[in-house]
Amino acid sequence: MSERINVMVPWLGREEADAVAQAIASGWVAQGPRVARFEKEFAAFVEAPFAVATTSCTTALHLALIVTGVGPGDDVIIPSFSFVATTNAVRYVGANPVFADVDLETGNLTSATVSAALTPATKAVIAVDQGGVPVDLGDIRSVTDPLGIVVVEDAACGAGSTYRGRPVGASAEIAAWSFHPRKLLTTGEGGMLTTTREDWAARAKHLREHAMSVSAADRHRSVLPPAEEYSEVGFNYRMTDLQAAVGIVQLGRLPEIVARRREIAATYRAAIDGIEGLRAVRDPEHGTSNFQSFWVEVLPSYPTDREGLLEALALADISARRGIMAAHRQPPYRDLTPERGLPVTERLTDNTLILPVFHALSDGDQQRVIDVLRASGGVSP
Fold first, then answer.
1. Separation CA 168–CA 152 (nearest Å)
2. Residue 34, CB half-sphere, CA atoms under 13 Å: how many?
3. CATH of 255-376 among 1.10.287.130, 3.90.190.20, 3.40.50.1400, 3.90.1150.10
4. Is the pLDDT of residue 211 over 70?
5. Residue 381 confidence (pLDDT) above 90
6. Rounded Cα gap, residues 179 and 242, in angstroms
């Protein structure tokens, strides 16, 4: 029996375990000095002036919308072609999700798809770096900036990707990041908000801690802390020092992780280019992907459809995944499908799958995946 190949395996080891042990030994396991250090180092890595650690990318998106002033009655343009959290965050602040279609090559919003979705009530756009492919933020902002529309970059999958020679997120006024185990850099669960504006960062830090006038860290340092006040309705979106300890180590590993994933992606592409009916994701002209997800489109000329290929992989004990979901097909959002439709979103959702990519994927196991793609495509060994 061959060993199962998973679609993703985090790269965690002794260094992360030692870092957590040191945090426990310090006696400070909630939000504290390691969180502050992780924020500083992550901000430097992505070339952002300010960073605010959170419990998840979803909560970072929620805070990003609040601090940018998005609220009830506002429209927020988003891709349906994204995990449902992108859409949920809009609903959290009482705003209206407005779905825009995406580019066939990148799976991302463009200036054209955003323009087609604009309404008189548009207050913000959430632009996603889908699967790690960098969104062309400058292209989108050429439309939104003159209209005073803020762009929030959903960089959940983007850590380690580049945009026009800089880290993804460096060109954003505000961005949200994920450290879920499916991402390259993981803290188990966790997220980050980065921004160019000190006032947005300060309010996000205030809100993530119940909107307390005295932070938990300051209270801990004081023998007799002052009485705290809660100036508005806040949230408990605090990352722990245990998570941050892991994140600091992971951040140091990130360049090596990206290099290995790009190596794996190049091997997949070289093989897939020789198989009629399969189309693999590639770097866009404006940047490089970390290949958080390596997706392949199954075209009509391939001998089987996407479901048939997934089944063939599963029979070989290889765990692949259906491509990115379409949020407008989910029960809470079905009534928001635009009249113009979302043809590219639906094509990609229905016909793409995600292949195994992770740091420790061996050459032999990757060849097992490629062999199934070739066999299912009628290519001789």
1. 13
2. 25
3. 3.90.1150.10
4. yes
5. no
6. 13
Whole-angstrom CA distances from 189 to 19, 102, 159, 196, 251 are 16, 28, 15, 24, 15
Could you tell me where in the chain the CATH 3.90.1150.10 domains are found? Answer: 255-376
**What pTM was computed for the model?**
0.95
Q: 14-252, which class in CATH? A: alpha beta
Please tell me whether residue 129 adopts helix, strand or coil conformation: coil
40 belongs to the catalytic site? no
Q: State both tokens at 184.
A: 């390259």
Residues of the chain with CATH 3.40.640.10: 14-252
Q: Which of 200, 243, 260 is nearest to 42 (CA)?
A: 243
Contact (CB, 8 A) for 169 and 153: yes
Q: Per the residue annotation, which of 40, 123, 183, 205 is the catalytic one?
A: 183
pLDDT more than 70, % of the chain:
96
Tokens standing for 58?
């979803």
SS3 48: coil
CB atoms within 10 A of CB 49: 12
What is the number of residues in the chain?
381
With CA atoms as reference, report the closest residue to 291 among 268, 314, 317, 274: 268
Contact in structure between 46 and 254 (CB atoms under 8 Å): no
Q: How many CA atoms lie within 13 A of 357 on its CB side?
A: 28
